[in-house]
Description:
It is a single chain. This protein is 21% helix and 47% strand. By secondary structure, the protein is an alpha+beta fold. The chain has a single domain, classed as SH3 type barrels. It has a five-stranded mixed β-barrel with strand order 1-2-3-5-4. A hairpin with a 2-residue loop joins strand 1 and strand 2. The longest helix is centred in the C-terminal third of the chain and has 15 residues, at 54-68.
Amino acid sequence: MCLTVMAKVINVQGQSADVSVDDIVAKVFVSINNVKPGDWVLLSGGTILSILEPDLAAETLELLKGIRGK
């Protein structure tokens, strides 16, 4: 079973990046082009799969805040 999560890119160095998921920072593999700091991405198995559109990322974050009660 695979779990895909949203993460915010903090830093990119070649084919690796530091991302933040709920304030937890992890180093992941960059499998696509044009990933830059500040991007919201979908992450699975330690690999960035896609970059989210800013509007979709913001909408998803708001929905998650509602579910979590934050």
